[in-house]
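Customer escalation, tier 2.

The customer says the design service returned an amino acid string that "doesn't look like it belongs to this structure." They asked us to rerun it and document both sides in this ticket. The original structure tokens are below, unchanged.
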């Protein structure tokens, strides 16, 4: 059916590539292009026996001209951006120049400021509309499936959703005192930023990890979770009718938090460049270089993740409570695609989102967050492609 150009070849990309190859009816041909070509070639060698035709290329995705040349030579139907958030705008620029659809899993961040907002990418709306191409923003799990879950609930079970809590629990154990489950630089920027949530149309800011709750997660048990800022709060508060309060919580173990605090206290999480032996280095980037590569955690991570949305609102004048979530097992993911569940739960939705665009189900000119599309075909695809979901109308609520 179509051709996809996949940019990036890290933990998440590896899952996207495996899943595209499993879905060769839709992904007849893929090109894997990244900064380090040897990683792309390694995956190509491993997966080349199947029906999906695979080629590879080296690309610096910070360079729009290089991207344009690559897109013009391969002529993909969609570009799946699973490099880093820093590359979102250059890749969108290249898609615009070549009139090709675009999908990513994280909002643009400038490299020198840990600022999480959609304004930069939403500014492309009119240009994408005029060019007749679709951009799907934030199509991982969170953001991504959490937006689809909410849109599904809004479509089928609510007239209005007033309270939304997104709960992200990773109960996996990799045996290291400290490691991050996806790109360490991006992960630490996110969790060391101030927390925030939306109440009555206004952002309320908190200190990092200031608000803690304990929640009894289905199939996992009780875990400490902390309120974080998360990018989907911004789009969901606008796109979902009736929202009064929206919050995001993520679980962290004590060892992770103690190490993070210590690293922060000594300045290792700073993104301000320093001079070291006549060379400019960014402490957080140096830290990334000494931490375990998230892609190496797969074989050693055991346990499960549970990510979902708890909603309260009204249908036909009556109060409704609803919880929809997915539970994913790290070892099962490893057996299937040699990745841990964090990369898996991000990569599978990215493949599904690209499939939605290629099959025309999510094809409309402009720049959209996932909750602005029909959730039903995506919800079906989650069940089919490895992320089955469960629902209950009697959930434990978060106070
Ligand atoms: P990794 O660091 O494992 O992989 C990033 C890849 O991008 C690497 O292959 C890297 O190349 C490549 N890359 C970086 N810069 C460039 C560049 N300038 N040009 C070309 N390629 C480049 O990250 P992850 O796989 O863990 O994360 C990928 C994305 O997924 C991130 O944007 C992250 O924020 C997002 N994410 C989203 C989640 C969600 O639920 N929505 C959850 C988890 C992650 P090299 O190999 O040379 O380093």
């Amino acid at each position: 059916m179509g051709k996809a150009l996949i940019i990036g070849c890290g933990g998440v990309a590896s899952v996207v590539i495996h899943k595209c190859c499993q879905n060769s009816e839709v992904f007849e041909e893929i090109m894997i292009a990244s900064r380090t070509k040897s990683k792309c070639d390694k995956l190509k060698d491993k997966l080349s026996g199947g029906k999906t035709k695979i080629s590879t290329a080296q690309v610096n995705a910070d360079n729009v001209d290089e991207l344009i040349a690559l897109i013009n030579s391969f002529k993909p139907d969609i570009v799946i951006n699973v490099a880093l958030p820093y590359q979102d705008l250059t890749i969108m620029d290249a898609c615009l120049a070549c009139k090709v659809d675009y999908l990513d899993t994280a909002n643009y961040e400038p490299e020198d400021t840990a600022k999480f907002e959609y304004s930069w990418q939403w500014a492309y709306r009119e240009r994408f509309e005029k060019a007749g191409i679709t951009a799907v923003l934030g199509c991982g799990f969170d953001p991504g499936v959490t937006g689809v879950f909410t849109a599904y609930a809004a479509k089928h079970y609510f007239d209005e959703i007033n309270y939304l809590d997104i709960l992200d629990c990773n109960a996996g154990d990799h045996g290291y005192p400290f490691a991050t489950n996806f790109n360490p630089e991006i992960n630490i920027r996110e969790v060391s930023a101030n927390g925030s949530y939306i109440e009555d149309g206004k952002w309320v800011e908190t200190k990092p990890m200031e608000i803690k709750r304990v929640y009894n997660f289905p199939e996992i048990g009780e875990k400490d979770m902390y309120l974080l800022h998360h990018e989907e709060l911004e789009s969901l508060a606008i796109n979902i009718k009736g929202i009064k309060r929206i919050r995001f919580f993520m679980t962290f173990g004590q060892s992770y938090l103690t190490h993070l605090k210590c690293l922060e206290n000594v300045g290792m999480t700073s993104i301000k460049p320093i001079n070291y032996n006549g060379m400019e280095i960014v402490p957080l980037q140096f830290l990334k270089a000494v931490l375990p590569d998230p892609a190496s955690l797969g074989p050693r991570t055991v346990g499960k993740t549970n990510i979902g949305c708890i909603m309260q609102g009204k249908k036909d004048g009556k109060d409704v409570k609803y919880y929809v979530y997915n539970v994913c097992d790290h070892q099962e993911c490893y057996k299937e695609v040699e990745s841990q569940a964090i990369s898996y739960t991000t990569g599978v939705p990215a493949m599904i989102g690209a499939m939605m665009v290629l099959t025309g189900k999510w094809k409309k000119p402009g720049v959209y967050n996932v909750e602005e599309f029909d959730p039903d075909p995506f919800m079906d695809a989650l069940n089919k492609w490895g992320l089955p979901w469960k629902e209950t109308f009697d959930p434990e609520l978060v106070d």
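Tier 2 assessment: The sequence is consistent with the input. The chain has a mean pLDDT of 96. The pocket of NDP is lined by residues 8-13, 34-36, 39, 59-62, 82-85, 87, 105-106, 140-144, 182-183, 186, 294-295, 342, 346 (CB under 6 Å). Sent an explanation to the customer and offered a walkthrough call.
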